[in-house]
Amino acid sequence: MKIDELPIPGALRxxxxxxxxxxxxxxxxxxxxxxxxxxxxxxxARTEVLIHASAGAVRQPRCLGSPWEEALFVRCTQGRxxxxxxxxxxxxxxxxxxxxxxxxxxxxxxxxAGIAFGYQTLEAQAExxxxxxxxxxxxxxxxxxxxxxxxxxxxxxx
Length: 158
Description:
158 residues; mainly beta; 6-stranded antiparallel sheet; 1 helix
């Protein structure tokens, strides 16, 4: 697995190494020790799969508020998504960081607690797989960021 640092401290892009033979390929999609070796928390408390019927669907950047802050592992398993990350740690929101995740690229991102994650689907039937570091409880609050600084590449659909 190839791991690259993103401009937001602690955020990583993970790329599956895919040596292939006539049968196809086998690759590791997640490994606890890859994150532990970087001093990060690889806890998985729950997973979610989100499937969107149309291109243009938006999930505004959000993260859980204190004390439920959590790390997040994100992979696009079908189609493509435009990802927006905002660092909410410290004095105020940092500038949005935009990138694309595509199922064909076999990449994922790891986000430490305090990073807001949002996305827009770039294709119909886009599928997003999330691994959360905490259990969501009824009393958990999330911090949703509605920002004029975010420019979505497609018209927003509902």
